[in-house]
Design a protein that fits this description.
The chain is of the alpha/beta class. Among the domains are: 211 residues, Ribonuclease Inhibitor (Leucine-rich repeat, LRR (right-handed beta-alpha superhelix), Alpha-Beta Horseshoe); 33 residues. It is built from six helices and eleven strands. It has a nine-stranded mixed sheet, with helices on one face. The N terminus is likely disordered. It is found in: Cell membrane. Keywords: Cell membrane, Disulfide bond, Ion channel, Ion transport, Leucine-rich repeat, Membrane, Repeat, Signal, Transmembrane, Transmembrane helix, Transport. This is Leucine-rich repeats and transmembrane domains 2a.
């Protein structure tokens, strides 16, 4: 009849209904990259532990995602625009991968990023323009192969509060590289082969300033020189570095500007080495490397001063003991003298009586 004809005309064919069902199933899946898990609120995208050797399609991230977890994969190379247009992300975890080189400005578009984890990768060098993220508060660079932190690398990180450089190959650090970190509260530097020489003196002063304003720094144990091996540089007296000033004066680097690396020439350090490993000419830097003889001389001076002070103290104690003994003997002598005086007086009186008796008898 006419009603059945109208119903058959209005209802879609079975093929269209199947296609509509598939589209309904595929649309939610398209909002999350393959091989990733997106939370129900689409704020966390977890792509960790999937064996990925390349990034998943970043354009498939749910709008407004805040956390992207890419840990425990096989990522070795990232393009300069790998994280472009991801301004909503607040956390990025790239730990436990094979990253050995990160292009400059990689995180430039991540304006809301506050936590970045690069723990346990193969980073040996970093471009000074890598971290152009003004709001970053936590940065983990531990367990990499870093041998230096270039000046300028941390200049844009004024909001940084937590930084880890533990477990690298750091021998020394430049104070100027860390001075922009005005809000830093926690610094991890353990498990590095620190050389506690003149190149680490200025950074030691900066660490003391950080501790003075309430910050925290873990142990910085020296591996060289042998005299300081195993000691925490925070407990090494500043007098141990006095010879550095003498070395700078001998090399024509007098003045505070030369000692701080400003004016004159830059200090000789591992960061000043060119890619071939050759050391700069004496005119290009101030040689202030550690001299074991100088430190041994300083330690010998301290030991000799201690021995002299000990001898003086012993002499003072001996003099005090001698004075006490002498005073005791004199007091005893005075007491015995007082006891003898009355007896001597009685003898004189008897003698006078006998003389008077003899005179009277003669008379």
């Amino acid at each position: 009849n006419k009603a059945e004809v109208n119903n058959s005309f209005l209802s879609p064919p079975p093929v269209f209904r199947v296609l509509g069902l598939l589209a309904a199933l595929l649309l939610p899946a398209s909002s999350c990259p393959p091989s990733c898990f997106c939370s129900s609120d689409s704020l966390v995208v977890d792509c960790g532990g999937r064996g990925l050797s390349s990034l998943p399609p970043m354009h498939l991230l749910p709008p407004g995602s805040r956390s992207l977890l890419l840990a425990n994969n096989k990522l070795a190379l990232l393009g300069a625009s790998a994280f472009a247009n991801l301004s909503s992300l607040e956390e990025l975890d790239l730990s436990n991968n094979y990253l050995d080189n990160l292009p400059a400005g990689l995180f430039r578009d991540m304006s809301n990023l506050t936590r970045l984890t690069l723990h346990n990768n193969s980073l040996t060098v970093m471009d000074r323009d890598l971290f152009q993220v003004g709001g970053l508060q936590s940065l983990d660079l531990s367990l990499n192969g870093l041998s230096t932190v270039p000046i300028g690398l941390l200049d844009e990180l004024q909001s940084l509060r937590w930084l880890s450089l533990a477990g690298n190959r750091l021998h020394g650090l430049e104070r100027a590289a860390f001075e922009p970190l005005a809000n830093l509260q926690h610094l991890e530097l353990g498990h590095n082969p620190w050389e506690c020489d003149c190149n680490l003196r200025d950074f030691k002063h900066w660490m003391e300033w950080l501790l003075y304003r309430g910050g925290k720094v873990d142990a910085v144990e020296c591996t060289l020189p042998k005299d300081l091996r195993g000691r925490d540089i925070r407990g090494v007296p500043v007098e141990m570095f006095n010879y550095c000033l003498q070395l700078e004066d001998e090399n024509g680097g007098g003045g505070e500007g030369a000692r701080s690396g400003q004016g004159g020439g830059p200090p000789c350090s591992r960061s000043a080495l060119n890619p071939s490993g050759a050391t700069p000419a004496p005119s290009d830097c101030v040689r202030a490397r550690y001299r074991p003889v100088s430190v041994r001389r300083a330690i010998g001076t301290v030991v000799i001063a201690g021995v002299v002070c000990g001898i003086v103290c012993i002499m003072m104690v001996a003099a005090a003991a001698y004075g006490c003994i002498y005073a005791s003997l004199m007091a005893k002598y005075q007491r015995e003298l007082k006891k003898r005086q009355p007896l001597m007086g009685d003898g004189e009186a008897d003698g006078e009586d006998r003389e008077e008796k003899q005179i009277s008898s003669v008379a």
